Amino acid sequence: MTRSLPSLPQSRRRFLGATSSAFAALVASGCSVSPRIANASTPSGYGPLRPDPAGLLDLPEGFSYRVISSLGDAMNDGFTVPNKADGMGCFDIGGGKIALVRNHELITTDEAGGAIPAGFDSREGKVLPGGTTTLVLDADTLAVERQYRSLAGTIRNCSGGVTPWGSWLTCEEAPVRPGQRYGEGIGKDHGWVFEVPAAANTLVNPEPLRAMGRFNHEAAAVDPATGIVYETEDRDDSMLYRFIPNVPGQLARGGRLQALALVDGLQDSRNWDALSMRLAKRYEARWIDLDDVESPEDDLRQRAAAKGGLKIARGEGIHLGDGDFYFCATSGGAAKLGQIFRLVPGRDGAPDTLELFFESTDPEQFNYGDNLTVAPNGDLIVCEDQYTETVSNHLRGITPQGQAYPLALLRLQTEPAGACFSPDGRTLFVNAYSPARTLAITGPW
């Protein structure tokens, strides 16, 4: 049954604020949070999309893009840009420079763009091709000054998240072991989070953050007020996790992993068989402590569900707003076209709450949301990743009132990914997954 989306008050749908002192450190770090400005979009977006003569990206009037990096481009370390560009974060690294740290969701048999000298794991004597590349740009002109490999030896680095202390958390969507699919010939277990400092100018030491859990990782986001890291999982019966570090900002020193549950006992947010999660209703949350988080059997979500954890339909991108987090459930909803949830961490003794912010009822509205970010005007920007014979993936905007509109159409038969804003809010960076390209989009945000 088709359900209409209610129009909700602005006070229940705000994303960003310019005066939130608790998030000053995050803004200063150059992460993709920008001061709120007057909303330039309308309930129908920025207007109709204009066909791109180059056949790459259709945008509204007043917007333009340029390609700043492409598959096969020579990099400064002697390698070439690898394929499958996915999640990405943008950082102010000082001196008028910004850095993009970009994931590459490569499996063991993919091309690496050169013989990598060192990394987390190898196969048949070759370092695994998955990992990250870093691009250093002039903040004013967006000219690429350097690009190079910054992490190697991993598998299927899907999404991740920026930290307030200036690093990128890159997440393996690959809880595989030696001998399993994608794991033929490898020497180590995979399915970890790795940390890549944005200012690193060469390959970093690849240390898995084991206490953050081993599962089918997707994305991560940090609460700068507490240092807690929220993590999504790309499975049909996934959980939302949070990692409470022993020392905020020092994730390698360990901590405690928990899974989200609801106080009222509801255990399924997917709305597949019946309407269980209602739009705009705030549910009080609780958190379940987890053990054996390195999960050699890849059963962390199942053990969490047995303790009352809330099932989510393919948790994907997660992003921080004004004290709250928004995350996609790619195939959630009665129409199985996608949902977006809003998690509000409690402050001063108040409980955490979870709200179903958006649920798509029509492919023209929203179709399989993946990565997401927040625009300077407060709208959500969501990358679609639909699975159809003829791919037609958009960047979708969603207003604070919960209204969806097309922001861009990627004309390639692939997905847009890694959407993130420059620290000054003037530029949206986004990847075309394969063949890999990184684009810089400017316009009247």
Automatic annotation (TrEMBL):
Q: Which domain of life is it from?
A: Bacteria
For this protein, the record's Pfam families field holds: PhoX (PF05787)
Residues annotated as transmembrane: none
InterPro entries found in the cross-reference section: PhoX, TAT_signal
Q: Does the keyword Signal apply?
A: yes
The UniProt keyword set, sorted, is:
Signal
Indicate yes or no for the key word Signal.
Answer: yes
| Stretch forming the signal peptide | 1-24
Output this protein's name.
DUF839 domain-containing protein
Q: Which organism is it from?
A: Parapontixanthobacter aurantiacus
Query: What is this organism's lineage?
Result: Bacteria, Pseudomonadati, Pseudomonadota, Alphaproteobacteria, Sphingomonadales
